[in-house]
Design a protein that fits this description.
By secondary structure, the chain is mainly α. The protein contains 4 helices and 3 strands; from the N terminus they run αααβββα. The protein has a domain of about 100 residues. The relative contact order is 0.19.
């Protein structure tokens, strides 16, 4: 079955959102490496916690740490959304003629209920833009120039 344009938009914005979060993760890993705190953290949440627990030292000043922590707080609030997009297959449901992306993260399932998260394309687009913005804010906070694009809306 061929995807409709609105279904294709859902797939595009999901992909751009995941890319934007990957951009954030690259910056966090880079900072952890620069301050000799890179470890065996696999999950993004664990990397954020490792960075939060880092004490100011050398070029990682108290002011820089405070700025980074402020951005990390905003990123942390979006992690449940990111986790659902990354760890769930996307199903598309029609709702009053609109295509809606539905995610059911297997890590959030239990024997008694299901938990789903639903997005229309404009909400996924907004999330991609927010994550891209936070990647840029993280760049400013850590005062490094990114080599990778962070703009989720390029060629939109």
């Amino acid at each position: 079955m061929t995807a409709t344009p609105s279904e294709t938009n859902l797939h595009i914005w999901r992909s751009r959102t995941i890319d934007a979060f990957a951009s954030i993760e690259i910056r966090i890993e880079g900072l952890l490496s620069k301050i000799d705190r890179s470890g065996k953290c696999d999950r993004l949440g664990a990397k954020i916690e490792a960075l939060r627990k880092t004490s100011p030292q050398g070029p990682y000043s108290a002011a820089r740490k405070a700025a980074v922590d402020k951005v990390l707080e905003q990123i942390s609030k979006l992690l449940p959304l990111r986790n659902d997009l990354v760890h769930s297959p996307m199903l598309v449901r029609k709702d009053a003629g609109k295509s809606v992306a539905v995610f059911s993260n297997p890590n959030a399932l239990c024997d008694f209920s299901t938990v789903t998260r639903e997005f229309e394309a404009p909400r996924l687009q907004a999330l991609a833009c927010k994550a891209s913005h936070l990647a840029k804010e993280l760049d400013k906070a850590i005062a490094i120039k990114a080599e990778l694009p962070t703009e989720a809306t390029e060629n939109a």
